[in-house]
């Protein structure tokens, strides 16, 4: 899996479409004795690892399950506070599953709005007039690519750093948006995209881009 997700953000900064590609989760499940060797802290309604990476467990990973039961944010399946439960020696040994949490719909909306603001800030900070704003952000595990149309719609693709041809893919997504969303008589501008043909053709475009591989047309 080389292309992870696609976002479409309207000119006001609202998320109007989002697609996550299915990918294997790199969860790590381990059994611990008391005291817990990891330092856990509450963050954004979750309990995450603050210190003590080991055995595939990394700083920032969230507690996903305890003794096989999924946790609900900061509480266990039976309603107990996760940190209080793990702080009680009577509950050990305990099996904990860690991993990256799935973003909620509200978090995706918030992040789309934040990127919209960063895009505008990037444009304003440019020493040259008429800067396009942020076109790419790179980390060690993914690249974020953005293409903004003349009307202010932003198409954002998150992909593996080795994936090429993303510039062409972004323009293909714009073409699909024009053909299957804008020309749909039931679609209203700036509103969430709920068009089956748009979904189908977008997925086909992503599959074609991935088959081109890391040695396809340069991005």
| CATH architectural name of the largest domain | 2-Layer Sandwich
User: Residue share in helices?
Assistant: 25-40%
Number of strands: 11
CATH class of the largest domain: Alpha Beta
**What sort of overall outline do the alpha carbons produce when their principal axes are compared?**
elongated
Q: What fold name goes in the CATH topology slot of the largest domain?
A: Beta-Lactamase
Structural class: alpha+beta
Characterise this structure.
It is a single chain. With 219 residues, the protein is α+β, with helices and mostly antiparallel strands. A hairpin with a 5-residue loop joins strand 1 and strand 2 (15-20). It contains 4 helices and 11 strands; from the N terminus they run E-E-E-E-E-E-E-H-E-H-E-E-E-H-H. It has 2 domains: 3-23 and 104-212, Beta-Lactamase (2-Layer Sandwich), CATH 3.30.450.70; 28-99, Pdz3 Domain (Roll). The chain has helices spanning 82-86, 105-125, 166-182, 196-212, and strands spanning 3-9, 15-20, 28-32, 39-43, 46-51, 62-66, 69-70, 94-99, 136-138, 143-148, 154-159. The strands form 3 sheets. It has a 5-stranded antiparallel beta sheet. Strands 3-8-6-7 form a 4-stranded antiparallel beta sheet, with no helix packed on it.
């Amino acid at each position: 899996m080389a292309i992870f997700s696609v976002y479409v953000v309207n000119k006001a900064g609202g998320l109007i479409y989002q697609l996550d590609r299915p990918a294997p989760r790199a969860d790590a499940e381990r059994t611990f004795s008391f005291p817990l060797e990891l330092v856990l802290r509450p963050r954004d309604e979750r309990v995450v690892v603050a210190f003590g990476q080991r055995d595939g467990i990394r700083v920032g990973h969230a507690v996903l399950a305890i003794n096989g039961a999924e946790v609900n944010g900061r509480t266990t399946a039976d309603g107990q506070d996760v940190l209080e439960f793990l702080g009680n020696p009577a509950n050990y040994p305990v099996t904990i599953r860690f991993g990256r949490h799935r973003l909620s719909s509200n978090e995706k909306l918030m992040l789309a709005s934040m990127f919209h603001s960063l895009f505008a800030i990037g444009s304003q900070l440019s020493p040259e007039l008429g800067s396009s704003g942020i076109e790419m952000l790179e980390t060690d595990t993914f690249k974020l690519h953005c293409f903004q149309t003349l009307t202010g719609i932003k198409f954002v693709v998150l992909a593996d750093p080795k994936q090429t041809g993303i510039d062409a893919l972004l323009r293909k997504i714009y073409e699909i948006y024009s053909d299957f969303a804008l020309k749909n008589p039931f679609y209203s501008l700036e509103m969430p995209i709920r068009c089956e043909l748009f979904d189908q053709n977008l997925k086909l475009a992503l599959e074609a881009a991935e088959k081109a591989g890391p040695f396809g047309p340069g991005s």
